[in-house]
Amino acid sequence: MKVNKKFFPGVLLTAFAFSVGFLMNNQPNTQAKSAVKVVWRQKMTRSFYTINQSKAKNGYAYSAKLGKKVFKLSNYSHKTFTAYYHQKLKVNNQYRIYYYVKSNSGKKASGWVWRNYLKKIPSKINSSNSIIGATVSSQSQLMSYINAAPDLDPNLTILGFETDVYSKYKTTLSQQYNLAQFASSGVFKDNHAKIYVADNRLNSYVNTAIERWNAALGKNVFSIGSSSDHTLTVKLNDASTEKWDGLFSGNIIEINSKNFTNPNYANNNLATSSTLEAKLTDISNQASSLLDLTNTLLNKLRINYQLQYLTLESKYNNSSNASTKSTIQKQISDLATNYENQDKAIRQNYDSQVSALRQAVKDAYVQEQPAISQASTTNYWTTVIMHELGHGLGLYHTPYQSDVMFASSSDEQDATPSPVKYAWTQAKDPSDAMAYTSATLTSRDVDRAKLAEILGYW
């Protein structure tokens, strides 16, 4: 079973682009445009929602800063959504709370939705309408339960059947959730495997992978063994001509030593770290405040100019004295010159401070790059090992790149054959983060492993 090299986008430094309205000649009339400002954005306890049909008839889900509409809420009025993040936005001097939600079944949809458009599902009701202890009297009834669950993710209904259901429908369940027997006999004894790490350079990655699988499954599934007492070996392999990173073969996990020892191989798959995110958020807030202040100053300057101009213009029109008119014309000319100079000074000050903020962004990336590179390398190889341990548990690949068990294709060359629910050649969640950016198991990874245990694959 192989893990192929993924596509690694480089760290992209996005230049901040800020603008202020251009004022026309001596009688400007441009007003500062209202902006959407992020006050805060945080993770939230996952909870489940449906669309509030009475309020969201013409509502939409949006991208993060309401830049574009993602989908119309009324088209998903009967879907259940999980909320992962919430943010407070300042829009036209008013504050609103938005939730980042993803649909739980069917055609996937995700985006930021104003919380008043959502209706929370009481915690006592399971989001996927799971039925613990459901009876299965036929293949068609089993498929109705499978079709009601999220794609490739066995919910509590699937994990809560009577024992005889799993023996009777093992083949169907295996194919519907991409499961098979990959571990050799004896790797798992009483649902537990002891791992011998043959190269100490792999120790930290293996230990982290073990901790994350054990924590997710709520039991001691993997532990570190020794050269004389183990059931599964993890080692480096000089696979210089191969294109895989990790390979599972019965009772051995091999890691491509050429790729593993290349310091640049896996250090560019993270664009940010938590520290960098905090710095960039602070800089973004400074830039937003600077823009607001600059537009306020320009607006005040424009209004003062217009009032003084109209006053002088009125005096000029009401005067019949040539000398007085000449004096007023000189005052108008001086007023215009003074206005242009002050306008220019405000804009130059803005440009100077924006330039400093752009440099601060670059400096932040430079300062955090070593930590980002280390985190990238650590998370990448931890994920590779988690992926291979997943094969040991009986998990074949999925088309979801957020899963640790993701593969870009259902029929990777030389991969161990396995029955699959359907074929794929591209990710089904291309907008989601790759699993190796955080080395985190998804609920789909964990639920499939639980079903694999019930089916006897580990």
UniProtKB/TrEMBL annotation:
An example molecular function term from Gene Ontology annotations: metallopeptidase activity
Residue ranges of the TM segments: none
Pfam families reported in the protein's UniProt record: Peptidase_M10
Positions of the Peptidase M10 metallopeptidase domain: 376-410
Key words, A-Z: Hydrolase, Metal-binding, Protease, Signal, Zinc
Residues annotated as signal peptide: 1-17
InterPro entries according to UniProt: MetalloPept_cat_dom_sf (IPR024079), Pept_M10_metallopeptidase (IPR001818)
Protein name: Peptidase M10 metallopeptidase domain-containing protein
Annotated organism of origin: Lentilactobacillus hilgardii (strain ATCC 8290 / DSM 20176 / CCUG 30140 / JCM 1155 / KCTC 3500 / NBRC 15886 / NCIMB 8040 / NRRL B-1843 / 9)
